[in-house]
Write a structure and sequence with these properties.
Elements: H1 12-31, H2 35-39, E1 42-44, H3 46-49, E2 56-58, H4 59-62, H5 82-95, H6 98-104, E3 115-119, H7 126-132, H8 137-146, E4 161-166, E5 172-178, E6 183-190, E7 193-200, E8 204-213, H9 218-224, H10 229-238, E9 254-264, E10 267-281, E11 284-292, E12 298-301, E13 321-324, E14 327-332, E15 337-341, E16 344-347, E17 353-355, E18 360-367, E19 373-379, E20 383-393, E21 402-403, E22 408-412, E23 422-429, E24 432-434, H11 450-478
Antiparallel strand pairs: 1-2, 3-4, 4-5, 5-6, 6-7, 8-9, 9-10, 10-11, 11-12, 13-16, 14-15, 16-23, 17-22, 18-19, 18-21, 19-20, 20-22, 20-23, 23-24
Length: 479
């Protein structure tokens, strides 16, 4: 019988030390898995996530080579720092070939030492801009005096760029500035001083469509629809005979229009005229089509050829707020007693333009008691209008003169018996005061004869296009 071999006993301290080493090794293996263990981890492909495929990719298949170091993989994700990013960029540059370097780092355009550019900032004048490029005030004076049109450069706008070209000896040769996408002005040195030139680019014109549903103000809605401030004003003026934009506008009202858009090299640079428009206000839809008659006069008519133009526009102040209505028993805020208010008050900021609501003769322009600065217009034998509390009168407005509908006659103020800036507007028919908001206004003549046929040939396609554009836009919004 072979004797059993017996393992000699180890000191207890050795056994404890060995156990500790084994425990640390186990912990290290759990926290820092070996490359083989890490490689066995799997990742779902997009196809597996969608449930369309059962392919499992090993991490080694997905791991970018840039994470494999010369000494083998690290199981940790590297933390990027500015230093490591710079080192990576330098290493990447070293590894790229000449063609790649050239493609990613194109040769910068050569700098012209004789060209200096300055941009207009807040508070800048032509004198300060000249100083920035090393030109004296005396030189500026000489240039402005050399050509009567040179003063065009004095009309500066913040952000505008001026380019100065010099000769090798430092003498100024030219100044150039692009005022807009369509206009550039320049001054070029000549034997007599400086020659002024204005270059204008003629844009292409294309028809564009826009639509909006009122949410907030007309201006905010129009801006969201891509319309400029001027185009929005044109739209309001077109429908100003039928819609009081200070009183009648409601949430959910809708407008649409086809307008001319100016384009240069495919880029929109401005707007032209509104060709056709529709405005739905409080459930009623108004249409407008632009038409130029044989005398070359442009006007807007309804889609059926009837005139949009009334003898009077509804409001003499654009987008004002009605602060007091027509009343025969209103409490006067200054006199503190009941007194008839024979007009409508439009509250608006001081200096807001006031328009004549119709063609007429200026029966009075001056100071008139509680009305303060006032203008009275006579429109034929039947109608007259009064405009009170003006801050001042527009140029050329004086008793005995004449005005056209929409012409600015003065500006909102607080003269006379007034507690704040507003326009007091009165309307009389045969000498009797009537409510300006309720009076039925006479219409202008409709298109007749051969002009009517030509108008309809233009109107019908425009109305059809608006129908089509609206249907397309609504269909796209439902998707």
């Amino acid at each position: 019988m072979t004797p059993t071999s017996k393992i000699p006993p180890y000191p207890k301290s050795h056994i404890v030390a060995a156990s500790g080493v084994a425990a640390l090794l186990s912990l290290a293996l759990l926290v820092f898995p070996s490359r083989e263990v890490e490689a066995k981890k799997t990742y779902l492909t997009p196809e597996m996530e969608n449930g369309t495929d059962s392919v499992i990719q090993e991490k080694d298949d997905l791991r970018p080579d840039s994470l494999i170091g010369e000494e083998g993989d690290s199981p940790f994700a590297r933390i990027e720092t500015p230093e490591t990013e710079q080192a990576d960029a330098e290493q990447e540059t070293k590894e790229k070939g000449p063609a790649e370097k050239l493609a990613n780092n194109p040769t910068p355009a050569p700098v012209d030492p004789n060209l200096k550019k300055v941009r207009v900032g807040n508070g800048d004048t032509l004198s300060t801009l000249f100083a920035k490029v090393g030109l004296s005030t005396n030189r500026l004076h000489d240039i402005l005096e050399s050509n009567k049109d040179a003063k065009q450069f004095s009309k500066l706008k913040i952000g505008q760029e001026l380019q100065f070209t010099f000769a090798n000896d430092g003498e100024l040769q030219a100044i150039r500035s692009q005022l807009s996408d369509l206009e550039t002005i320049s001054l070029t040195k000549s034997a007599k001083g400086f020659d002024f030139k204005r270059d204008l680019i003629k844009p292409e014109m294309r028809d564009s469509y826009a639509r909006g549903v009122i949410s907030g103000s007309l201006f905010l809605t129009a801006k969201r629809s891509g319309l400029s401030h001027d185009l929005t004003m044109d739209l309001a003026n077109i429908f100003g005979y039928d819609i009081d934009f200070a009183l009648d506008l409601r949430e959910g009202d809708e407008f649409e229009l086809i307008y001319e858009e100016k384009v240069v090299k495919g880029k929109p640079v401005g707007n032209g005229q509104i060709l056709a428009a529709r405005f739905t206000n409080r459930g009623k839809t108004y249409s407008a089509v632009r038409y130029i008659d044989k005398q070359g006069i442009a006007s807007y008519y309804r889609a059926d050829g009837t005139s949009m133009r009334k003898a009077f526009i509804r409001t003499p102040v654009d987008f004002a707020r009605i602060s007091s209505r027509f009343s025969m028993g209103r409490f006067h805020p200054v006199l503190n007693k009941i007194r008839a208010h024979k007009g409508v008050d439009y509250a608006a900021p001081r200096g807001t333009p006031i328009k004549a609501t119709a063609d007429g003769k200026i029966a009075f322009a001056g100071r008139r008691g509680g009305y303060g600065n006032a203008v009275v217009l006579q429109h034929g034998k039947t109608y007259s209008t009064l405009y009170g509390h003006m801050q001042g009168f527009a140029k050329g407005i004086q008793t005995g003169g004449t005005v056209k509908q929409g012409q600015i006659i003065g500006y909102v103020g607080t003269t006379g018996l007034s507690t704040g800036p507003h326009l007091h507007y009165e309307f009389q028919v045969n000498g009797v005061h009537v409510d300006p908001l309720g009076v039925k206004l006479p219409m202008a003549d409709a298109i007749a004869g051969t002009d009517k046929k030509l108008f309809m040939q233009k109107s019908q396609p425009l109305m059809a296009r608006m129908d089509q554009e609206k249907a397309t836009m609504l269909a796209m919004n439902k998707r």
